[in-house]
Structure prediction request, 484 residues.
Amino acid sequence: MSIKISFKKSISRKTSSNLVLFVDEKFNTKSIKKYISSSEFSYISDLLKTIDLKKKLVTFELSSKKKVVLISIKKNLKNHDIENLGADFYDLINNAKRTEYFINSDSIVSINKNFIGHFLHGLKLKSYNFKKYKTKNEKKLININVFGKDSTPAKYQLKFRALEEGTFYARDLVSEPGNVLHPDEYAKRIKELKKYGLKINIYDQKKLKRLGMNALLGVGQGSIRGSYLVTMEWKGLRNNSKPLAFIGKGVCFDTGGYSLKPAKFMEDMTYDMAGSAAVVGLMKNLALRKAKINAVGVVGLVENMVSGNAQRPGDIVKSFSGKTIEILNTDAEGRLVLADAITFTEKKFKPKFMIDLATLTGAIIVSLGSEYAGLFSNNDKLSNELIKAGEKVEEKLWRMPLHKNFDKLINSKNADMQNINYVGGAGSTTAAQFLQRFILNKTPWAHLDIAGMAFSKYGGALNSGGATGYGVRLLNQLIEDYYE
Prediction:
């Protein structure tokens, strides 16, 4: 099902067959009396006496041709609460037979100046579905008409549409099957983003080998597909100020390599590139809304496969930083991709900060489930900004520890370090501790382990199940609040 949103200054009462009105949390109806007939008002008022008013949305079938939906608004709603209301409204109309609704923005009883923008944003985010490969795809279109003096189409178009497009692009990438979105195809799709004003550079295997990115290349060497590092630059400022850097793990399919995953865990490994998808979606969003910052996105794109040429447990590789890594487990591959990407980003772009996103460890799901992503950082200021931004958009983060005492768990007898904690325990922390070793110049850095947040089989407040696009809205909010 798709949603079409239109804005009108006014409509006739005859046109508004499915009318959406807003009331306060006690369902006081005096404020809506002027928008409906006296008989309709009396009918609704009487029915409200018999209805459970704990609900946020109540529907009244006035006739076979007319329905009224009342949506209650609590005082002091936060933006994400309004977006959740919009998502609830989508759930209501998604299962209904009617395909056109008229939202009266003049009836809004909230002091939030952009209530309608956040409401529609939540509705749109919840409406996403990925049915590209369904041969019998129901093409249901619902028309949402917003009318009244308080509707703000220009503001909605500029801010929210860009964010929706960025989030949906990330969700699309994560939803694609591995036989379609392999590294070769992924690099091509990113290249197409040039049309939005992004500067794209693609480093293929030959270039990566010359650069000495052997940690990244080692992960992909068992695949018939190429391995790539792709950079996306957005210059929203005329000056040469240091860019904000976002780095994503793009393992398009992860078999685990010779440290083979069990079958029931392997089938979902198309989403092991969700960190990179969030970075790509964010960069598209920044370009669409002409963000007033300088930013760079860097993604490492590989496929971790088993073959006669695949990396073996016990192999030692020399990373781009010059540090050597003993590969004890080929399924701890994401940190190898990120290791080279982090050092490269720091050296080439000298950013203000670096934030990497990755579906890195199953251990973070054990710790935090699907409610919080794990946050690891060498900088308190950046951590606090990320946590506050996450709370605003309900893409929550929980800060986890980093400490030098964890280093002994990844020290290797045969190389500078090993890619797993061989003793066991602290799986997410030792992975983050590993990544921190590839920051050479004390650049402020945060690592977001999004393994529990990138994909939802059951759906959430703003998604109906599947890829969530986690990270796009979080990082956009961080930029808006602190760096733009």
The chain has two domains: 2-151, 160-482.
